[in-house]
Design a protein that fits this description.
CATH class of the largest domain: Alpha Beta
Structural class: alpha/beta
Strand order of the largest sheet: 4-3-7-1-2-6-5
Low-confidence stretches: none
Largest sheet: 7 strands, antiparallel
Helix content: 10-25%
CATH topology of the largest domain: Rossmann fold
Bound molecules: flavin-adenine dinucleotide
Shape: globular
Order of helices and strands: EEEEEEHEEHEEHEHEH
Number of strands: 12
Distance between the termini: 32 Å
Number of domains: 2
């Protein structure tokens, strides 16, 4: 049931599909169901409700990569050939859906933008947070400084993201996402730590998030006002089991 915090899911129509890069597929949603969707939600998230063969619904979380008056772009990291050996329902849907089909969509949930007023910004993530990082980099003021590091599945998944001239961007390639959890933290640690007030934003696979948390919070001392860190998925677990792992991790902090 809809509550004040949780609006009822709306039915959106697939307008188009496109391959952004070999392992990233864009599904553009629109149609009459978008009419009362709040404006300026790029970087926020939606909950896709995917019907399963047994009649149940799988709920999966995805970032609003871009929003126009009549459309939302959602970018899906394709990870069908991973340790699990099969694509989950959201990935399967992104691979097979055709324009004209519909889907129930919950949300939106709030974006986690980079707060103004810091001397340097550090961003880290994998292909699941590439959409959010893209939005965050594009929103930085032209004189912002910082560094971003993103893990992608292949050379051809590296995108040249619009960003201020003072923000450098490095890519790591890991064909099997989630299996090299130290990579992002090691890449950030290898960089000179910026001068002044640092804000760090990181979202990726659970074990990679823990390695980044250890670097940014425990070693570098970034507190809650200077750090957003989130686990977006966990290797070997579907989203429902990942949620439980996240809750247990939060209780242990
Ligand atoms: C706030 C938020 C925003 C997100 N935004 C995006 C987004 O914009 N784009 C995006 O692609 N993802 C995004 N994610 C991550 C996405 O929700 C998960 O990857 C989700 O589990 C995928 O659902 P699925 O049905 O394909 O796989 P599931 O059924 O959840 O899992 C099936 C199997 O696939 C594995 N798996 C799941 N995700 C991955 C992966 N990325 N790489 C390798 N194996 C994986 C699981 O470990 C499991 O073994 C976001 C997550 C959060 C919390």
């Amino acid at each position: 049931m809809a509550t004040a915090n949780r609006p009822a899911p709306r039915v959106l129509t697939v307008l188009s599909t496109a391959q952004v890069s070999p392992n990233m597929r864009r599904i553009t949603l629109g149609g009459p169901g978008l009419a009362d969707f709040p404006a300026e939600q790029q970087g926020g998230y939606v909950k896709l409700r995917l019907p399963l063969p047994d009649g149940k619904i799988a709920v999966r979380t995805y970032t609003i990569r871009a929003q126009r008056a009549d459309a939302l772009d959602i970018d899906f990291a394709l990870h069908a050939e991973t340790a699990s050996g099969h694509a989950g329902p959201a990935t399967e849907w992104a691979l097979s859906v055709e324009p004209g089909e519909t889907i129930e969509v919950g949300g939106p949930g709030p974006a986690k933008p980079l707060p103004a007023g810091h001397d340097a910004y550090l961003l880290a993530g994998d292909m699941t947070s590439l959409p959010a990082i893209t939005v965050n980099l594009a929103a930085l003021p032209a004189d912002a400084r910082g560094h971003a590091v993103i893990e992608v599945m292949s050379e051809d998944d590296k995108l040249d993201l619009p960003r201020p001239a003072g923000v450098t961007l490095d890519y790591l390639v890991a064909p099997q996402p989630g299996l090299q959890p130290q990579g992002l933290a090691e890449a950030l640690a290898a960089r000179e730590w910026p001068q002044g007030a640092v804000y760090a934003w990181a979202a990726c696979e659970f074990s990679g998030m823990k390695a980044l948390r250890s670097l940014l919070r425990d070693q570098r001392g970034l507190g809650p006002d200077s750090l957003y860190i989130s686990s977006y998925w966990k290797s070997g677990l579907n989203e429902d089991a990942h949620k439980i792992a996240k809750r247990e991790d939060a209780q242990g902090q």
